[in-house]
Amino acid sequence: MKVAIFDFDGTLFPEETFPLLMSHLKKHPIHFQKYRKFFFRILPVYLAYKCKLYPEQKMKEYSMWSYIAAFGSSTKSEIDEFFSQIGGMMSQNLSNHMLHRLEQHKKDGYYTMLVSGAYEPLLNSVTEDVTFDCIIGSSIPYEDEKLRKNASINYIYGERKTEFINNHLSNMKVDWQNSFAYGDSYTDLNVLELVGNPVAVNPEPRLLEIANNKKWEIIS
């Protein structure tokens, strides 16, 4: 079995997700008051990160947790509705080039995967009209259909992406050499190196340098 693995932020979706989520929360007619709680929780950590006193991965993971924690004891249906609203808007701006690649891979019999650090309900909403065989994202912890307070977010980032991919495919015989992976960031490197056909999509400078050195396909 051959697989085609797609990143989301900067790849299938041309922009970064988190700034859009912040704006959506800030302007939301129902949940806007939660933005203040989120902002003041994240501010010290973000400033420490900007001063190079806090690692990027931990800062992003803390940001993801802080964002969801601002919803307090909201129900799963309320949070799903919140992500559905922004997901519907984002779905109109997916990369046509990546959608074409996805459709071609499906026609060629590839097992298609969307693997991202974005929240799973957001990914499910954005791709409501786009079919993947598997979607892996950062899950939101619930208990009795309500947000579980102070529970950690399992943020899918960097090496964790490859762990989740390998776990999901553990019972399948994968032809890695003839498989594809698409990513835009240096943090996607572990996933790109899994396959015989890595593709750098509008790559950031560090990934662009590696892609050029290794003669990978580059889509700009």
How is the topology of this model organized?
Layout: E1 3-6, H1 17-27, H2 33-50, H3 56-69, H4 76-90, H5 96-107, E2 111-119, H6 120-126, E3 134-138, E4 142-143, E5 146-147, H7 159-168, E6 180-183, H8 189-192, E7 197-201, H9 205-214, E8 217-219
Helix pairs in contact: 2-3, 4-6
Structure description:
- Strands 3-2-1-6-7-8 form a six-stranded parallel sheet. It has a two-stranded antiparallel ribbon with strand order 4-5.
- It has 220 residues and is α/β, with parallel strands linked by helices.
- Strand 2, helix 6 and strand 3 form a beta-alpha-beta unit.
- The two termini are 28 Å apart.
- The protein is globular, with a radius of gyration of 18 Å.
- It has nine helices and eight strands.
- Helix content is 46%, strand content 15%.
Can you tag this structure with a few keywords?
two-stranded antiparallel sheet; 8 strands; single chain; alpha/beta; globular; six-stranded parallel beta sheet; 220 residues
Estimate the global geometry from the Cα principal axes.
globular
What is the CA-atom radius of gyration, in angstroms?
18 Å
Strand-and-helix sequence, N→C? EHHHHHEHEEEHEHEHE
Give, in spatial order, the strands making up the sheet with the most strands: 3-2-1-6-7-8
Question: How many strands?
Answer: 8
- What would you call the structural class? alpha/beta
Question: What is the terminal separation in angstroms?
Answer: 28 Å
Q: Please, how many helices?
A: 9
Low-confidence stretches: none
Q: Overall pLDDT, averaged? A: 94
Estimate the strand proportion.
Answer: 15-25%
The largest pleated sheet is described as: 6 strands, parallel
Q: Considering DSSP H and I runs of 4 or more, what fraction of the residues is helical?
A: 40-55%
